[in-house]
Amino acid sequence: MKRFFSYYAPYKLLFFTDFFCAVVVGLLELGFPLIVNLFIDRLLPSGNWQWIIIAAAGLILVYMLNTFLQFIVTYYGHMLGTNIERDIRNDLYGHIQRLSYRFFDNTKTGKLLTRLTNDLMNVGEMAHHGPEDLFIAIMTLLGAFAIMFAIHPQLAIISFIIVPLILVIAIYFNKKMTVAFRELFGRVSDFNHLIEDKIGGIRLVQAFANEQREYDNFKMINDAFRQTKLKAYKIMAFNTSSTYMLMRLVTVFILIAGAYYTMNGELTFGEFAAFILISNILFKPLEKINAVIELYPNGIAGFNHFTEIMREVPDVKDHENAVPLESARGQIDYNDVTFAYDDKTVLNSISLAINPGETVAFVGPSGAGKTTLCSLLPRFYDVTRGSIQVDGKDIRDYTLASLRENIGTVQQDVFLFSGTLRDNVAYGKPEAEDEEIYAALEKAQLKELVDSYRDGLDTVVGERGVKLSGGQKQRIAIARMFLKNPPILILDEATSALDTATEVQIQTALNRLAEGRTTLVIAHRLATIKNADRIMVVTKEGIAENGSHESLMAKKDGIYKSLHDAQFAYQTT
Ligand SMILES: Nc1ncnc2c1ncn2[C@@H]1O[C@H](COP(=O)(O)OP(=O)(O)OP(=O)(O)O)[C@@H](O)[C@H]1O
């Protein structure tokens, strides 16, 4: 709660203006029955039209003022809620971005989508309506009671007897709704996950002609979503209708008891009318309290989900005395490195040294841990035991941002953002001039292609770059690296076969990119790494072989030699 209210701090003025206007609106509403009372008991018997018109004109002024205040309450009140929603969303997004690979390995994107959208909309609604409506409702109830009590204490007490019962019922249903809405939120997030997964993979679905199966699956989840929603709405309907019934009972009570007191001469006609009108006004705060109670579970569930994610601590982060890595020379040392994903040990006591400017290729069976080994260098994960050093210093002693600025990664599965070519190439250097971008494209063997597009650098690449071929995407990733110009490179070689011309283009671009940088290549096709300074064979047991292509080929029963021979035999068949 403390955290929730801290979001109001920057908007104190907005909050109090909105609050003040809402209080005045509530008070002015209460004035109307009193004016009717005056009308019936004083002005009507006097027969003085002048006073009647003055009173009517006064009433119009009051209504105009109220209309203006209502506008402020509705607009600025929602502005308050939206501002808070925006701030919470910014904090959440900022935090999510800092979380480590491990978090994303175990979290569904659809869930995060729900947290950032639906959940926070509900929090915004609660932020606006929660405290304000509750306070105004309680104030109006007390004000109404005070007026009724001043007119006729006994009738006032009779009218209010049911109010606590209405509140008790509302609280009872609120508890039930909290449970129902929590379930509903879970369903929304499953739903978003499903949509994200299946629409993202629509090409695969269509390629396997699995539309019907996916549609049936979707219908099933959609139905479960509907069921959960109906459950929540049923509780809501019980709450609304039982409260409505009890509130109408209040009117009947007032009618009967009021008629009795009026006939006994304890109440004037005007006071009787005022009582009935106030009982109608009474419904408003009760309905408001009810609405807040309906809103509350949504908002609380949303805010709880928010705090849950905010409590996630990134397992890879800067330590207090971390220093920036300026421009790395590129000396890399793995010292007795062991690494496990959760409880699955992938790397065991690996030690290796790479000299500045050297190109080292990692080869080995699939799943041996080549990618994992390289992803420890930019600290996508931290080592479980041992240490990795860059230029003689533990990478955990450098600030994370500076370490990653010094390392460029070209992944086998190139990710492009939906935007233009310029956005994607200049992603690592947004301030780059067009000439620089073109120079990078040239080095990546892509300039001709970009020139052939009518929109040049402004060509839209489609979602995840669907409008480009695999080879083109690879070269965009390479161009990105030319622009970023890091001293250390990690190249996760594409496994997919490209045509010879494209392969030659990419290889030329990669060789050029590797020049003068310390380069770690995760190699799948051995033909491409013959010229690497050194080749290391990674197996589940560790680095099994280490040397140049020639020296490894000279080993009679060497793993590299057998891998190489097997690939060569496969390619020539
Ligand atoms: N994020 C992850 N969470 C849990 N286990 C993982 C994760 N990434 C990889 N693994 C597991 O770690 C092991 C090593 O995977 P890695 O991708 O490093 O191997 P690789 O040698 O690069 O394989 P390939 O040549 O097929 O790309 C595999 O058994 C894999 O299943």
List all distinct small molecules, including ions and cofactors, that are bound in this structure: adenosine-5'-triphosphate
| Count of helical stretches | 20
The overall pLDDT average reads 85
Residues in helix, %:
55-70%
CATH architectural category of the largest domain: Up-down Bundle
What count of domains describes the coordinates?
2
Pfam families: ABC_membrane, ABC_tran
GO molecular function: ATP binding
Transmembrane segments: 12-40, 52-76, 134-151, 157-174, 243-261
Domain ABC transmembrane type-1: 19-298
Describe what you observe in this structure:
Strands 6-7-8-3-9-10 form a 6-stranded mixed sheet. It starts with a helix and ends with a helix. The chain is built from 20 helices and 10 strands. It has helices at 2-6, 12-46, 49-98, 101-105, 109-116, 118-151, 153-160, 163-200, 202-207, 211-263, 269-310, 370-375, 400-405, 421-425, 434-443, 447-452, 470-484, 500-514, 549-553, 559-572; strands at 332-341, 344-354, 359-363, 385-390, 393-394, 407-410, 488-492, 518-522, 534-539, 542-547. It has 2 domains: 2-310, ABC transporter transmembrane region fold; 323-406 and 523-573, Rossmann fold (3-Layer(aba) Sandwich), CATH 3.40.50. It is an alpha/beta fold and 573 residues long. It binds adenosine-5'-triphosphate. One of its GO terms (molecular function) is ATP binding. It is found in: Cell membrane.
